[in-house]
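Entry 14. Structure prediction run on the chain below.
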Amino acid sequence: MSWFRQRQSGGDNSHQIQAARDVYISKGTQPDEVVRICTELVRSEFERFTATARQIVEERAQEFVENYMCRQADVAPAAISSMEQPYMQRALQHAQVEYASSGDADLGSLLVDLVVELSQKEHRGTHATALQDALTMAPRLTTQQMNALTVVMLGRVAVFHWRSPEEAISAFRSHFIPFGDLPSTGADFRHVQGIGAAWIGFSARKTFAENLTDVYPGLFTEGFNRSELPSQLPEVVVPAAEPDLVKFTFPSARELKLVLEAFGIDEARVADCLTLQKSGTLAPDIVTDTILENVPEMSSLITGWTAWSIFELSTTGMVLADAHLRSRTSGNPPLVL
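Output returned:
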């Protein structure tokens, strides 16, 4: 069974497997040899199981290998040769055993994505090391806990290049709602910290709207008078919703700062622009009401967000959240560690 059929162009599972085999051959790698290597990697592990359990795990391991080969050929065919490296074989071995033991297709697809992502990274780099840690950590997290990591990443790490509230509302539907089922017990908080996926930072708890307006102060805004702009700026404003007012083209404070600095604007005027950007920001309760009027399904996520707003993600937590995000959505902002 293909775990990625919805992400691919179509065709039944046998056609996808044959297409993957053709890609491997085109790269000078024999697909049967890949299957043999993967089988050998887990043979000694499965020999310890009882006959009934061994049959189950061997079938699941085969299913994992088929999905891995299809995904590798589809996403990163140029990295197929990385499988000859010991660190990649170790990653494949661990991922196969974990999926074969659980049989959880969601976990299986996540592990496949992590292995394929690892194949494209420089070995021993920070990203590759985090991916290898993530392969060990993923089976130890519940779906709800993975949702929490993903929501924290979306709210505090990812940078969306929204230009209007409407674009943000659309992203809430496509990228946030799928992860709205969040855990809320002390055991969940302790577990996520205990395995090293995240930790409690020093910042105060914030509501979803408070965090949103901190990161994107120019998104939900009344605007300001053009006359308030510092002198000699490039054209970086557009009309606001309020008549005769304008707002910055870039709602994100981080993005606005980078753009102004790229134009050579001095530090004092950049600071004035950032202050001006915040001056028209709507109150958090108004922002919350606006979001819920347009996307009532955000209610549970908004409620659950506050408890998780104080968490900082480790690099491993970030790559896990990114993989979980990609498993359910497309058109995602790139992860920058």
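Residues 6-10 have pLDDT under 50 and may be disordered.
Filed with the rest of this week's runs.
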